[in-house]
Amino acid sequence: MAQLWGGRFTRETDQMVYRFNASIEFDKRLYRRDIEGSTAHVKMLGKQGILTEQETEAIVEGLAKILADVEAGRLAITSEYEDIHSFVEANLIERLGDTGKKLHTGRSRNDQVALDMRLYCREKVVLVDALLKKLLQTILTIMEAHTETIMPGFTHLQKAQPVTLAHHMGAYFEMFKRDRQRMSDIYERMNYCPLGSGALAGTTYPLDRDYTAELLGFYGPTLNSMDGVSDRDYLIEMLSAFSTIMMHLSRFSEEIIIWNSNEYQFVEIDDAFSTGSSIMPQKKNPDIAELVRGKTGRVYGALMSLLTTMKGIPLAYNKDMQEDKELAFDAMDTVENCIELFEGMLATITFRKERMRASASLGFTNATDAADYLVNHGVPFRDAHGIVGRLVLYCIEKGIAIDEMSLAELKEISPVFEEDLYEAVSMETCVNKRLTVGAPGKEAMEQAIAAEREYLRQHPGIV
Questions:
Q1: DSSP string spanning 198-236?
Q2: DSSP state of 193
Q3: Burial class (CB in 10 A: 0-12, 13-18, 19+), 228
């Protein structure tokens, strides 16, 4: 068992205790960040004269070789080490002898793991932002192509008023745009360096924490050493934002699943993103959308787990905080995979425009416009509402749409109706006369699309 401590102890750690305490099986994914942080720390020690120039060069070169060997598969990260920190340091000592033992000068595992996790999370925030941007570009492409594709808008999952596919997609563009803004906010708050905090009270060595922070691309050092080693707010924020992303993806997936059903047939999912049934040969299942919807709970679980872990921890570091990793890593992987797969599914999906338009027409989504027509001809709105209600009931009994009624039938319900009603309640009129900011009319949508395109141009990425 490779451990970084032991002088205080007279007996070997029980094997079961050792395994329970060890974190190597999940924190090994931090190896690159651990070596990056150690390299910056050693360069700072050399700059400050705490290590000689020769010692600094030897350790930096040794760390670089360990990294190269791990990535080339020549050096395996195994369970004989307690954690990723002991793996790196033990291998360095094996290669450099006493010089390698100087790596940990002026540092604790507490600030070391705080740094590794912050570096790793920073990387993931940047990656998720990039994936969200690609998804937004796909959504915008659909919006640009479908400003005249009429479909029903829904409330309570009931057909409500006609909109366009561009307008519907624009709602998700706004959601994922806010998700990107959250990524940027989190990056701004997390981008401070805890290295140099020591175990909790700093160190007597003359460290240059500003220099270390600069080498690692941080805005500066954290300003309280106790908070530096015990803060996991950035991770909670990240998991909260990831949960919101998954909620948005899940809502979108639910709609794709509904639209893909035999009853709706609004979309055709590409074969590459569908599966069949082992017994029913006619089936084509929306598995990606269903799995995205299902995996949302995993990310929620990671957030609740960490909130629960942190709620009763006194300052500063406690071993409970080792529980910040496993579920968080799973959540990170889940979010990345779900965004990437969902984007691929969405980019290859076929929208059945005629089916969407027919659904809007047969769903009486133009009923509000029929009422507005009466109001514009002097009928009080409450009376107009009742008249159109009777009109819809008549259409349901006959199995027809409002614009399929004859003028004589219309006048039997209200003598106010004239020939110009047909134009007033056409799907195109119902949509395109709605021109206020945020509405589905073609002119309004073209303005919104131009604004969204400019947003993407101005926000290429976090770094």
A1: TTTT--SS---HHHHHHHTT-SSB-S-HHHHHH--HHHH
A2: B
A3: buried
- Model confidence over 193-237: pLDDT tens digits? 999 999 999 999 999 999 999 999 999 999 999 999 999 999 999
Full-model pTM: 0.92
Number of CB atoms found within 10 A of residue 97's CB: 10
What amino acid occupies position 158?
Answer: Q
- Out of 156, 197, 225, 253, pick the active-site residue: 156
Active site residue 156: yes
Q: What is the largest CA-CA distance in the chain?
A: 101
DSSP 157: T
Contact 136, 71 (CB under 8 A): no
Q: Is 277 a catalytic residue?
A: yes
The pLDDT tens digits of the residues spanning 297-332 come to 999 999 999 999 999 999 999 999 999 999 999 999
Cα→Cα distances 135→180, 218, 228, Å: 11, 28, 35
CA dist., res. 305 & res. 308, Å (int): 5
Q: For residues 346 and 268, give the distance between their C-alpha atoms in angstroms, rounded to a whole number.
A: 10
CA–CA dist 463, 386 (Å, integer): 58
Nearest to 50 by CA among 101, 102, 108: 102
Give the Cα separation of 438 and 159 in Å (integer): 20
Contacts of 279 by beta carbon, 8 Å cutoff, 6+ apart: none
As beta bridge partners, residue 164 has 150
* DSSP letters spanning 376-409: HTT--HHHHHHHHHHHHHHHHHHT--GGGS-HHH
Rounded to 5°, angle at Cα 249 from 247 and 253? 115
Catalytic residue among 41, 240, 277, 359: 277
The end-to-end CA distance of the chain, in Å, is 40
Residue type, 166: A
Domains of the chain: 15-105 (1.10.275.10), 110-357 (1.20.200.10), 358-458 (1.10.40.30)
Beta-bridge partner residues of 159:
154
